[in-house]
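Worked Example 4.2. Consider the chain below.
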Amino acid sequence: MSDLLPLISIVGATLLMLAAEALWKKSEKPSFWIALAGIVASAIFAAQDVGRRGTAFDGMITVGGAGSYFSLIVLASAFFTVINSRSYSSRAGVQFGEWHLLVMFAATGMMLIAQAGDLMILFLGIELMSIALYVLAGFTRTRLLANEASLKYFLLGAFATGFLLYGIALLYGAAGTTNIGDIAAKFPALALSTIFWCGTGLLLTGLAFKAGAVPFHMWIPDVYQGSPTPVSGFMATGAKSAAFSALVLVFGTRIDPDGRLTLIIAILAAASMILGNVVAIAQSNLKRMLAYSSIAHAGYMLTGLAAGSAMGNTGIAFYATSYLFMNIGAFGIIAYLEEEPERNLTYDDYAGLGSRRPLLAALMSLFMFSLAGIPPLGGFIGKYYMFTAAVRADLTWLAIVGVLTSAVSVYYYLRLVVVMYFGESEGAISSARDIPSMAALLAAALATIILGAYPSPLLDVISSLF
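Applying the procedure from the previous section yields the following structure tokens:
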């Protein structure tokens, strides 16, 4: 039982929130505090498990190691989302306890994905996460864009589920088991099986949908734009980290002797970096810009996956950590300044912010610099590990694509900085004095700086996991 304390903590808090919903007419305040307590307790237990190695439920769930580390990333994303959404949900008129409850359900699904030792647990986690996010995307149900986002995300998820489940069925038919460790042990005998490789391809397709990689990105920008801003940040960080934890678990080592699967992953990475960065240039809406940026960052992390090495996996885990803070911070600032849904979301709205709200402008600039990969911030260290792993795996061409597309990204990230400090303001941006949200933004900025200036302690911990 002690092996499952991180999951038990968050599930227990979620059930307690359900009871609060039944007992209190105005349950948003108790739900908020229960959610934070459950997330913190689960994070403490997960941190204690990182150095361990084990399994539970007859190998269906992994304990410790990379699974616990990715669970910590998910829990941090959920924590920031709960903090940032309290004031936002009040301004949007959707201050209900169900909001925090759905975030907890989604986080539970993400943790199941990260700690899956069996393909069925992986599927269960993906579905639990996805269903909660479908509802969160359309939570402001009186807005047309929110309804559109929820429907499109549902259709996108349905396609992903179909590919994923059919792939699992084929892998079970080929290997006679859904346990990931057992399938890996049988690989020499399965390497010549057409059914096995068809199942592997479908599984990769399903997970690529969840990671937001090209050509499976489709409606992701529409979903990010229409969803409540804190939810968009949660999708871009927690859901993406969970998807990459699954990709590392299944494809984190070279399993194809002839390199065909490696080439496919590399092509997905290159296409994601190119399309995400190029199309982001044309965006005027900041949430759509960050959505295309998210597609590009999926390409950067797929670069580490294509390397198929311990260094590549270490880079993915570190990149997911730094990406969490810089992206949740950027979405947090947008949510902080969004007076009501669909206002203050364009570049022009941020003109002159440097003189009107200097602290927020400085924080947003920091996050933009890190997303662009400018040293000495966390985003630079993450990209360095990605591209170095690619070069060492004889994928130099992919590293070159990554460097060139990173240079392209500097334009649209720094464009916002230029607008904030040199643009002419046409109106005032007012925002509620939300002390918890501001504290969360400052914490995210501090973490971004520390990860760039002093990454060695965290890299040492991550390296020991792979």
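The two ends are 25 Å apart (CA to CA). The beta strands are 53-56, 61-64. Compare this with Example 4.1 before moving on.
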